[in-house]
Amino acid sequence: xxxxxxxxxxxxxxxxxxxxxxxxxxxxxxxxxxxxxxxxxxxxxxxxxxxxxxxxxxxxxxxxxxxxxxxxxxxxxxxxxxxxxxxxxxxxxxxxxxxxxxxxxxxxxxxxxxxxxxxxxxxxxxxxxxxxxxxxxxxxxxxxxxxxxxxxxxxxxxxxxxxxxxxxxxxxxxxxxxxxxxxxxxxxxxxxxxxxxxxxxxxxxxxxxxxxxxxxxxxxxxxxxxxxxxxxxxxxxxxxxxxxxxxxxxxxxxxxxxxxxxxxxxxxxxxxxxxxxxxxxxxxxxxxxxxxxxxxxxxxxxxxxxxxxxxxxxxxxxxxxxxxxxxxxxxxxxxxxxxxxxxxxxxxxxxxxxxxxxxxxxxxxxxxxxxxxxxxxxxxxxxxxxxxxxxxxxxxxxxxxxxxxxxxxxxxxxxxxxxxxxxxxxxxxxxxxxxxxxxxxxxxxxxxxxxxxxxxxxxxxxxxxxxxxxxxxxxxxxxxxxxxxxxxxxxxxxxxxxxxxxxxxxxxxxxxxxxxxxxxxxxxxxxxxxxxxxxxxxxxxxxxxxxxxxxxxxxxxxxxxxxxxxxxxxxxxxxxxxxxxxxxxxxxxxxxxxxxxxxxxxxxxxxxxxxxxxxxxxxxxxxxxxxxxxxxxxxxxxxxxxxxxxxxxxxxxxxxxxxxxxxxxxxxxxxxxxxxxxxxxxxxxxxxxxxxxxxxxxxxxxxxxxxxxxxxxxxxxxxxxxxxxxxxxxxxxxxxxxxxxxxxxxxxxxxxxxxxxxxxxxxxxxxxxxxxxxxxxxxxxxxxxxxxxxxxxxxxxxxxxxxxxxxxxxxxxxxxxxxxxxxxxxxxxxxxxxxxxxxxxxxxxxxxxxxxxxxxxxxxxxxxxxxxxxxxxxxxxxxxxxxxxxxxxxxxxxxxxxxxxxxxxxxxxxxxxxxxxxxxxxxxxxxxxxxxxxxxxxxxxxxxxxxxxxxxxxxxxxxxxxxxxxxxxxxxxxxxxxxxxxxxxxxxxxxxxxxxxxxxxxxxxxxxxxxxxxxxxxxxxxxxxxxxxxxxxxxxxxxxxxxxxxxxxxxxxxxxxxxxxxxxxxxxxxxxxxxxxxxxxxxxxxxxxxxxxxxxxxxxxxxxxxxxxxxxxxxxxxxxxxxxxxxxxxxxxxxxxxxxxxxxxxxx
Length: 1148
Known about the structure:
This is Phosphoenolpyruvate synthase. Residues 951-1024 form the Pyruvate phosphate dikinase AMP/ATP-binding domain. This protein is α+β, with helices and mostly antiparallel strands. It folds into eight domains: 2-119, Immunoglobulin-like (Sandwich), CATH 2.60.40.290; 130-263, Immunoglobulin-like, CATH 2.60.40; 274-369, no CATH class; 378-487, no CATH class; 498-697, no CATH class; 703-815, Glucose Oxidase, domain 1, CATH 3.50.30; 839-987, Dna Ligase, domain 1; 993-1056 and 1086-1146, D-amino Acid Aminotransferase, Chain A, domain 1 (2-Layer Sandwich). Helix content is 39%, strand content 23%. It contains 34 helices and 45 strands. The strands form nine sheets. The protein has a seven-stranded mixed β-sheet with strand order 25-29-28-27-26-30-31. The protein has a seven-stranded mixed β-sheet with strand order 33-45-44-36-37-38-39, sandwiched between helices. Strands 4, 5, 6, 9, 10 and 11 form a six-stranded antiparallel β-sheet that branches. It is globular. The protein starts with a strand and ends with a strand.
């Protein structure tokens, strides 16, 4: 068997596999003359770690590279490089992974981090499909939950929860071989909880793992790995979270990066968690209570939640309410300063200890440390105030400010004392300005009433003594440093002094510069940020290896102080007159500072791309267009960050805040105030300044019109368009929606949808808007959007002007009439007569298949040979109906008819139940035989697991009852019983790039110009409206150069291959009604989600490559339109130098 692999470095590798005596021989040949080394290893499967074969099998010249890879040079034979690898049959490896290394250039080609892969042999299926076996075993039982998970392209896990005679039974079956362990826990109060299961639930041979999880081995039986958990109904948890561990390879197997979760008994309602109850009981009683008691209790509680993110979040919320004075700092107890600092010392060292041992908890540990002072020399607080008074002969007599403060400090020193000291210093410096004194107190959160309400109240006003002014200023400045060192861990000066012993000369020199220039307005902001960032790099390197909790605490406080100083410095200077290039310079350092404490794929990818883009700064239209794409993605990442904090903190803030009787503002704005104190807020400020500037330079305008129309109606505002899906408006309505997910069905009566959310031109909602001739537009201007929202309830008339912007004016409600319903040409067909279970593409014709299949057939023989069409077969109309009436499906058919008859009652729930019911259909025995013959005739490979393919077919049929499809048919008068669903089966093109072409520009209506969008990977990120914009361009059909409108900014790329089962009904791809996205297409092997990094992407950085690709895509559009004879919406792909058309439909 010979395979050609086209590498990204331009080398074509010919790979030949052949059986030899006792094994297999793999020959790799390359015609390129470069010196090249094959960096390779073997693996059990696509996810397993690399391993090397026994040394006796190493090709000549091979050397080991670490423990998992070999490096073998290509040897020259007749002007080509060659490597021959021989492997024994008894080696249980299925995959050969490799990358190429070019020693002269010192460069690598690792397929953009994905490596290249040669399949040595197909993995042997050890038993029957697990889903099929499980189905048989469940007959006659009450099944509460059932699902099948793809563990990798070759293996499945079937899971079912059943109940019988008061006991639960969880069955797990998988065809993954080898020593497999279920690593599991229980959730009692919330889905995200993971607790050690009680021993009463443990099956035989279960062991406790690290005190937090149970591990139970699977047992091999009849070719499948099996496991059963049984437990009593009264012991049933809310759910069971788990992952799999292959003890042979050490591989952890998750559900697409997350834990598997099986719901069992539902959430058990409890008023408060045990942790919250303990906190509230301590805070709200009448017993003695101070900051010291609070810190000591927190120290003790941490041990129970050190790896529990939700528990730590609740502790942070508690400490934060304390820090913002929503909880008492003293009640019926006198705390000596040394006692308070001792409690601070214990707590902060405990936090540092958790930081070291629990990486997943570090984000919350950092937040908690901002609410607690470092501790330190508490006794000096009492001593020094007395020394100052004695040094200046200030008498300790009642009725004097300094004596009252002195008594308060002895009685209960708190962070209020730092504010009092600052206010007193301002009073002294201003020659006794009492108004400034109280204003400073108020700004620091200490009101006059709070002063007078201390257990040792401060009621007297300070005295100004002119001859002591300078001496007192000196002494109290030093005293303020002492107070801050104890109470404010993130005070920059205190943090530098505390951590200075840990730093080398370079870091110390940079800190000296930062401190010296912190208030110097003439210092370049970029220079200051550069040094802050460089010091924080050093600190974060230290934190990654340091194991001593004292040193970690000191490093953390310095890092937090620098982070806070960076935020304050940028906020303080951002409003001054700055040039565009200065804003551009600031984005990178701020982004990097965010990543020190919170990172995700968007932030990291954007940081690398921005740094490269900053290096070629030109402030041209093209540069602005590229910068806009990066910053749009940054904006989405900030949104994710804000949502993350809200989900993490706000529930706890609501819970504890109400119990604490905190001020309403402190509860409502809790998460928002935390976000405002993070570097992400600074970044959002930079974006707010840059966005309009870049938009203007890139000539993007304030609007993007997705669907042309003239919308008139009453303005309604909603948070998400989905909130009004299925609703019918009796008067013409304009919807202003903050969020649009892309798969909604615009409600009846809506004439226009305006949103700030990015929407792909081929998303379901966009296609539907064009079907309905309603105005659908994205508004990028914040002021315009706020103005529209302020007009809620008023009647507005919207139109698109000649420049492509949306204009609107207020009109009288009496002039507004309901929009006419758009008529569609739905062709009612007779109930199809059975001819065959499956048909080849040459047999496609009207009445048997839908427009999706027919349109591809119409292209056969009409396109140049460089444009390829995927091989196709179909299950024609009527097969679903035939399967439904089989005797074996009689019970399902009866339930199905009953559900459909009740759809007008509660459609959302009934539709979901209808889809679930159809997934239980059994196939006639003749169907797989017939389908296999047709697929082999068409050159399509037969799937190894028929039950998986059958499930895909059923999911396509069931998608006729998606909510959006049901609502769309209802709105357009298509009777449910007149809809028939064929299933088009094709080979997935393993796309490097996917594209959608509209052969008439939908924005301008120009029929001489097409518009197209391109994404990396499979096209589902386009049609599914995944976050971010695609690369967009226009091009005249007469042969001019493509004009770039947007750079790609999608966060996720989908990659994969195998078979795809596409919906193909008589209710889509109609004239004036595309129907795209109404019904589901299902891949046999779910695609891989890959976070995208455009830093080295040719489409972005190589102008010649991009021009060639876009020109060829333009030619595809022109050729297809010519072949069909009318404007088209075309979906296509590029892979391995070849162009494919996978779908085409009439453009709407």
